[in-house]
Amino acid sequence: MKEKFARWDILFWQYLKRDWKKMIFWILGVGLFSGGFVPAFEEIAKGQGLIGMFETLQNPAMISMVGPTPVETAADYTIGAMYAHEMLLFCGLFAMIMAVLHVIGHTRKEEDLGLTELVRSFQIGRQANSLAAMAEVVVINVLLALFISGLLIVFNVDTFSVQGSLLFGASVGMAGVIGAVIGLVMAQIMPAASSATGSALGIVGLLYIIRAGTDVSNVDLSMFNPLSWTYLTYPFTENNWLPIVFVLIFSIAMVVLAFTLEGGRDMGAGYLPEREGRESAKKSLLSVRGLFIKINKGVIIGWLIGFVVMGAAYGSIYGDMQTFLESNEMMKQMFAQSGFSIEESFTGTIMMVMTGLVSILPIAVVNKLFAEESRLHLSQLHATKVTRGQLYWTTIGLAVFAGLIGILLAAGGLGGTAISVLGDSATIDMGDFFAAGYNFLPSVLFFTGLATLALGWAPKLGKIVYAYLGYSFILNYFGGILDLPDWFSKTAVQSWIPQMPMDSFDAPIFITLTGISIVLLIIGYFGYKRRDMVEGA
Amino acid sequence: MTEIVKLKGLQKKFGNFQALRGVTFTVEAGEVVGFIGPNGAGKSTTIRTLLGIIKRDAGQAEIFGKDVWKESLEIHKRISYVPGDVALWGSLTGGEIIDLFMKLHGGGDKQKRDYLIKRFELDPKKKAKGYSKGNRQKVGLIAALSVDSDLYIFDEPTSGLDPLMEAVFQEEVEKIKEAGKSILLSSHILSEVERLADRVVIIRQGEIIETGTLDELRHLTRSTITLSTEGDVSSMEFVEGVHDFTQKDNQATFSADNQLIHDILEEAIKLGITKFEAVPPTLEDLFMRHYEG
C-alpha cells in the first residue's frame, strides 16, 4: 500500500494549489450554467408556456435530445419538472466532459510530458498521482454540487424543493465523477494522452446516443446507462436517489479497475498498441491545399455535423410550433411577426441565428493559419517556393467553402426535418429554406473578411472577431424582445439583411455587403504579404 | 568566386529592440560558412531575414544575386532550410511530412529519402506528436537533404540529436560540400563547425565581430604549449607573449601569442628543450575569448 500511494496527500495539496484558478472557473462556469437559468425558465413558464413546452417535449425528436420526464399530464408539469427535464442532461454532460479532460490532463498527459518521471524519482508512491488527481476531481465535483444546490435554493421558486435542489446538484456532481472514472480507466488502456481523451469523450458521446434510443423506446433500459443516471433521478418530481447509489458503486468499481490496470503497466505504456501511420504520404496531401484540408478536417467536420443536428433540432419543433409559440408571450415576441405564418417568421429568425453560428467555422479556419504560423509549423514552408499568397488564398478558399457547405447543411437540416414533421400542412418548401439561408451568405463572408483583415494586419486580434460575432448574435437573438433603437441593432451586420421568406430578397444590399467583404479580403492580403511572420510569439 | 549569399549593413528592429545592427558577410560558391554566436545574438533573425520570413529595415541582402524579400520565390527553388526547432503537425506521420516538404520544394529524390530515413534511423510511420525533439529534427534534416539545392541553410540543425546521429549529419553535409554546394551552418556545436566550415562568422549583439578562415582566426589567438627544459624553465614566465604560466618540477605549461611564437621558441631553445607539445586553440577557445572579452 505504501509503495503504491505514499505521500499522495502532498501531490493532492499541490494540485489544489496549482489549480485553484481553474477550479473557480470550472465551478462557476458549470455551476452558473446548471443553476443560473432559473429566471429564464420562469419567464418561459408564464401564461400557457408550461403546457406548450410539455407538448413540444413529447416529440420523440426532443426526447432523444434532452431526455424524458416522468410527468404524464401537462397539468403536473411544473417549472421544476421542466427545469430538470431540459437542463439536467446537458449540465451532466458538461460536468462529465470537464472531468474527463482534467483527469487525463493530470495523469496520462503528465506521463507523456515526462513530469511523472520526475515526480516518481522522489519518495512518491507509484500510483499516488492518480489517487491525488482523482481525489481532487471528487472535491471539485462535491463543491460544484453544493454550489448548484445552493443556487437553486436561493432562487426560491415554489416548485424547487430543497430536496430536489440537493438532488439536482448531486446529479450534476456525480456526472462529473463518472466522467473522471471513465477518463482514468481510458488513461490506463490507451497508448497516449490524446488517444485516451479521444476515446473517453467517444464513450461519453456513445452513451448519449444509446440513451437517445432507449429514452424513446423504453426508458427502463436507460437505467443501465451511466449517463442516464444523471437525469433519471428526476429532481423536483420523483426525487429518486437510487441512481446516485448506482453512480457510487460504478465509480468505486471503475477506480479499482483503473488502479489494477495502472499497477500492471509500465509508465508511459498502455494496453493497446499505438496505431501505425502511413510510411509515405498520399498524393492528396502533397500540396498546400491538401495540407490545409488535412489540418482543418477535424474542426470542419465536427462543426458541419453540429449544423445538421442543430438544423434538425429546430426543424423538429415546426409541428407543434403553433401551440408552443402562441402560448408564450416572450417566444411570440422573438419569433412571430404579424401578417406572416408562424412558420415563415420562425424560419427567418432562426436562419439568422444559425448563419451566425455557421460564421464561426470560417473564422476558425482563418485563425488557424495564424496559429500554425506562431507554432512554427510554417517556417519550413516559407523556405520553399510556396508563396504567402498561396497560404492566404488557400485558407480563404477553404473558409468560404466551409461557410457555403455550413449554410447548406444548416438550411437543409432545418428544412428537411420541418417539412417531414409538417407533412401536408407545409406552407413552405425546401427552396424557401435554402433561399433564407444563402440570403445571409454576405454576413458569413463579412465575418470571414474581418478575420482575414486581422490575419493580415494585426493577427493577435483574430480572436476579437469572435467577440463581435457573439455581440451580433445576442443582438439578433434578443433584438425582438428588447425593442432596440434602429441604429443600435444595425451595429450587428446581419440586421442589414432582410429576413427571407418574410421579406423579399434585397439584391443591392446582398451585392454591397459581398463587395465590402471581398475588399476586406484583399486589404488583408496586402497586410499578410508584407508583414513579418510572427514566430514563437 | 561568386557570392551566393551577400549581406551588407543588414538591420532589423523589433519594437525598441535593435536585433541586427549592420550585419555584413558573404557565402561564396562551394563554401561552408559557420555562423556562430551566443543565444540572442541575432543568428536566427539573420537567417529568417534571408528566408524572407521577416522584412529587413535597412541594408542589402541577396541570395544568388537576388533580393531576399522581393524575389524570395526564385531563391527558394534552390535552397533548403532546417530550423533549430522543427515544429511538426502532430496528426501526420514523419514519412508524410517528409513527402510533403519534398513536394512543396520540388525536385525530391525518393531513393535518397529512403536512404536517409535508414541512415538517421527514423521510424516514418509514427505520428509526429510522438516524436522526441531529436526525431523531429531528423524529419527536418531528411526533408532538406533529400532535395537538390544550391544553398543549404542550417540553423542549429543537430540540436537534440545524439552524437551518433550528429556524426551521420556531418558525413551527409560533407557529401553535399564535396558536390560543390554552399552551406550556411549556424551551430553551437563548435567541433561540428570546426570539422565542416571553411570560414567562420562570429556574431554578437547583432553585429559581426569576426570573420575569417579558422587558420586566420587562430593566428589571432594563442596556442597552449607544454615544455620541459634542461635549464630552469621558470625564466620562461617573463618572456613576452607568454601567459597563464604554470610550472611543475621542470615542466611548464602556458599559452603563447601566435604572433610572437618565434621569439618564445628562441628563448626556450637557449634552455635546452627535452620535451615539447603545442596544442592549437580550439574554436571553443576563440569563442570564449570573443564572448567574454
Which properties best describe this structure?
A: mainly alpha; 2 domains; 0% strand; B: 293 residues; alpha/beta; Rossmann fold; Alpha-Beta Plaits; 6-stranded mixed beta sheet; 4-stranded antiparallel beta sheet; 14 strands
List the helices and strands and how they pair.
The complex is a heterodimer of chains A (537) and B (293).
Chain A: H1 2-5, H2 8-35, H3 38-45, H4 49-56, H5 60-66, H6 79-106, H7 108-113, H8 115-120, H9 128-155, H10 162-189, H11 193-217, H12 219-222, H13 228-231, H14 242-263, H15 288-316, H16 321-326, H17 329-335, H18 342-358, H19 360-374, H20 379-382, H21 388-422, H22 430-438, H23 441-457, H24 464-482, H25 486-489, H26 507-530
Helix pairs in contact in A: 2-6, 2-9, 5-11, 6-9, 6-10, 6-11, 9-10, 10-11, 10-14, 15-18, 15-19, 15-21, 17-24, 18-21, 18-24, 19-21, 19-23, 21-22, 21-23, 21-26, 23-26
Chain B: E1 3-14, E2 17-28, E3 32-36, H1 43-50, E4 58-63, E5 66-67, H2 72-76, E6 79-82, H3 94-105, H4 110-119, H5 133-145, E7 151-155, H6 163-178, E8 182-186, H7 190-196, E9 199-204, E10 207-213, H8 214-219, E11 222-229, E12 242-248, E13 251-257, H9 261-271, E14 273-279, H10 283-292
Parallel strand pairs in B: 3-8, 3-9, 6-7, 7-8
Antiparallel strand pairs in B: 1-2, 1-4, 4-5, 9-10, 11-13, 11-14, 12-13
Helix pairs in contact in B: 3-5, 4-5
Low-confidence stretches of chain A: none
Q: pLDDT average of chain B, as an integer?
A: 89
Question: Beta-strand level of the residues of chain B, as a percent range?
Answer: 25-35%
- What count of domains describes the coordinates of chain A? 2
CATH superfamily of the largest domain in chain B: P-loop containing nucleotide triphosphate hydrolases
| Share of residues in helices of chain B | 25-40%
Radius of gyration of chain B: 23 Å
Beta-strand percent range of chain A = under 5%
Quick one: overall form of chain A? globular
CATH class of the largest domain in chain B: Alpha Beta
Number of helices of chain A: 26
Classify the fold: give the CATH topology of the largest domain in chain B: Rossmann fold
Weakly predicted, low-confidence segments of chain B: none
Largest sheet geometry of chain A: none
Calculate Rg of chain A over CA atoms.
26 Å
- H/E element sequence of chain B: EEEHEEHEHHHEHEHEEHEEEHEH
Provide the CATH architecture of the largest domain in chain B.
3-Layer(aba) Sandwich
Oligomer: heterodimer
User: Largest interface, per-chain counts?
Assistant: A-B, 35 and 43 residues
The total of beta strands of chain B comes to 14
